[in-house]
Design goal:
Blueprint (H helix, E strand, L loop, with lengths): L1 H9 L14 H25 L5 E3 L4 E3 L7 H12 L3 H14 L7 E3 H18 L16 H13 L13 E3 L11 E3 H4 L3 H11 L3 H15 L10 E3 L5 E3 L1 E2 L6 H14 L2 H18 E2 L2 E2 L1 E3 L5 E3 L1 E3 L5 H7 L3 H18 L5 E3 L4 E2 L11 H13 L3 H17 E2 L2 E2 L2 E3 L4 E2 L6 H14 L13 E3 L5 E3 L5 E2 L5 E2 L11 H16 L9 H11 L7 H8 L6 H12 L3
Helix pairs in contact: 2-16, 3-4, 3-5, 3-16, 5-6, 5-8, 6-8, 8-9, 10-11, 12-13, 12-14, 13-14, 14-15, 14-16, 14-19, 18-19
The structure holds 2-acetamido-2-deoxy-beta-D-glucopyranose (3 copies).
């Protein structure tokens, strides 16, 4: 109860506060230190008590396999080590994984989870390994031990895509492929959440099969949308029939929309962008009420569940990528009031009753609201978003820290705990919290620094514009152009970047504000949209020329 009261006080002045508390440099650094300590408390306890199992069980101080048998927490936490500045441990773990992880195992694995956590984690670590001081092999980033591991894992998933529709099964046996008794029913996100990892793989390895299957699945889903432009949340991958017809932005659907938009940005792909915009319009039209998003019947648009799900809290962050800061902020504010009520977000929250929903009272330390705070803070600089981060640190420490790690909250009403620490706590929750309080982190690079890499030292890497997959693994979009056989494209890109950095000499006193204004000079937008659209939607990337075009497309959405 005490923690609850404390939380209520900490959250007392949320958004639109009259005197929003600005954080001093010292306070920022204080929270970074606190978040680092949280990371190491969880991470070291995983290593001591749980490795090589997938997850730590924080109440019994031991480990268990959950999503497979691949030391999942270690794979998921690897890039967080680098973001926290721990190069030596990153190097040690990268070697450990290369020597010990093996995907030739008789395990029934979730195609979705294996992709976002394992393939995504390994790809991100592969792309960051030079930054982490690893002596990369010749040909990197088009080859390397972590890339081979990622490719190996992804190949194990490919049999799932052999269906009449191209939509994948939900589960695959890593050794034997899809079981003959496997159910053809899977969720929408399980069909539409591959394009970021799979297109990165295809570009790096030169094998188009990954991007092809991911795109085919996206297009197949698109064709099944209802007359009012919505998709349900479970579909039969053999017949394309919708089995569960609730449409919304949360569980079962969420990352499908996320990957359409992020895929559009990463691949500069207007087809994906148009799909996203069409869905976005229907979502606003049929599911949005008072800046909440409800669940509706996908054909009729009638409300089926007036609930807010914890997983939906990523939406304001995604909206910020298309420049819709105002709507994002209002929705974020709604979600914060729920956090304030419980010191965490229950899995489901009934909007009319203003309370939790039976059997869905847990908070497994999910990242989504913190993720949105990070994007919105980057977009606006409004310290109100830091306050959510502060509240998250305070309540997670108070409520879920135990001797051997951090435990999921079983029930936000009484803060009882569960014997589980999901790998996304280290991959996402801690990472987004840290990045929220570390505006100078290399991940926030706006193109002022970069390095040359690739087989002939002729491609540009680390210039920023990282795209986070749905497990918070950052992917460097510039790397997609690095292994292309097309030499012309590469030199064109390099010319663009070099000319960009010439105007762009970093100077000591260059504030974010100044950067924002320079961006707006380069990317023509309608004046009112200017600052909002730019600061986040198109983080300055190496492909600035093409982004100018995209910038206009993005701003049309509001
Ligand atoms: C990196 O992580 C390891 C393992 O937790 C720890 O022993 C070491 O002190 C860390 N180094 C830094 C610079 O934080
Ligand atoms: C995988 O699933 C199939 C079908 O349900 C089952 O027959 C098999 O025993 C499972 N294998 C493992 C290792 O759990
Ligand atoms: C929005 O909904 C109304 C009915 O509620 C419908 O007439 C209109 O066509 C919809 N617009 C879009 C873009 O879906």
């Amino acid at each position: 109860m005490l923690t609850f009261l404390l939380n209520a006080i900490f959250c007392a002045t949320y958004l639109f506060p009259i005197n929003s508390h600005a954080f001093t440099k010292r306070e920022m650094s204080h929270y970074r230190d606190r978040i680092k300590s949280m990371f190491y408390h969880a991470y070291n306890n995983y290593l001591e008590n749980a490795y090589p199992y997938d997850e730590l069980r924080p109440l019994t101080c031991d480990g268990q396999d959950t999503w497979g048998s691949f030391s999942l927490t270690l794979i998921d936490a690897l890039d967080t080590l680098l973001i926290l500045g721990n190069h030596t441990e990153f190097q040690r773990v990268a070697t450990l994984l290369q020597d010990n992880v093996n995907f030739d195992i008789d395990v029934n694995a979730s195609v979705f989870e294996t992709n976002i956590r394992v393939v995504g984690g390994l790809l991100s670590a592969h792309l960051l390994s030079k930054q982490a001081g690893i002596t990369v092999e010749e040909g990197w980033p088009c080859s390397g031990p972590l890339l081979r591991l990622a490719e190996d894992a992804a190949r194990k998933l490919l049999p799932a895509f052999h269906t009449p529709t191209g939509m994948p099964y939900g589960t695959v046996n890593l050794l034997r492929g899809v079981s003959p008794t496997e159910t053809p029913i899977t969720c929408t996100a399980g069909v539409g959440t591959f394009i970021l990892e799979f297109s990165t793989l295809s570009h790096l390895t030169g094998d188009p099969v990954f991007e092809d299957v991911a795109r085919k699945a996206l297009v197949a889903l698109w064709k099944t949308r209802s007359d009012i432009g919505l998709v349900g949340n479970h579909i039969d991958v053999i017949t394309s029939k919708w089995v569960a017809q609730d449409a919304g932005i949360g569980a079962g659907i969420d990352s499908y929309f996320e990957y359409l938009l992020k895929g559009a940005i990463m691949l500069q792909d207007e087809e994906l962008l148009n799909m996203f915009h069409e869905f976005d319009m229907s979502i606003r039209n049929y599911t949005k009420f008072d800046d909440w998003y409800l669940w509706v019947q996908m054909h009729k648009g009638t409300v089926s569940m007036p609930i807010f799900q914890s997983l939906e809290a990523f939406w304001p962050g995604l909206q910020s990528l298309i420049g819709d800061i105002e709507s994002a902020t209002r929705t974020f504010h709604n979600y914060c009031t729920v956090w304030r009520q419980f010191g965490g977000l229950p899995e489901f929250y009934s909007i009319p009753q203003g309370y939790t929903v039976d059997k869905r009272e847990g908070y497994p330390l999910r990242p989504e609201l913190i993720e949105s705070a990070m994007y919105l803070y980057k977009a606006t600089g409004n310290p109100a978003f830091l306050q959510l981060g502060r509240d998250a640190v305070e309540s997670i420490e108070k409520i879920s820290q135990v001797k051997c790690g951090f435990a999921s909250v079983k029930d936000v009403r009484d803060h009882k705990l569960d014997n589980r620490m999901e790998s996304f706590f280290l991959a996402e929750t801690i990472k987004y919290l840290y990045l929220l309080f570390d505006p100078d982190n290399f991940i926030h690079n706006t193109g002022t620094t970069f390095e040359l890499g690739g087989a002939h030292g002729d491609c540009i890497l680390g210039a920023g514009g990282y795209i986070f997959n749905t497990e918070a693994h950052p992917l460097d979009p510039a790397a997609l152009h690095c292994c292309s056989k097309d030499q012309d494209e590469r030199s064109e890109l390099q010319d663009i970047l070099l000319s960009l950095t010439e105007h762009y000499k970093p100077s000591m006193d260059q504030s974010d504000e100044a950067l924002g204004d320079r961006n707006s000079e380069r990317i023509p937008l309608s004046p009112r949209e200017r600052r909002k659209a730019i600061r986040l939607s198109c983080p300055v990337q190496s492909f600035s020329a093409r982004f100018a075009v995209m910038g206009q497309v993005f701003s049309d959405s509001t």
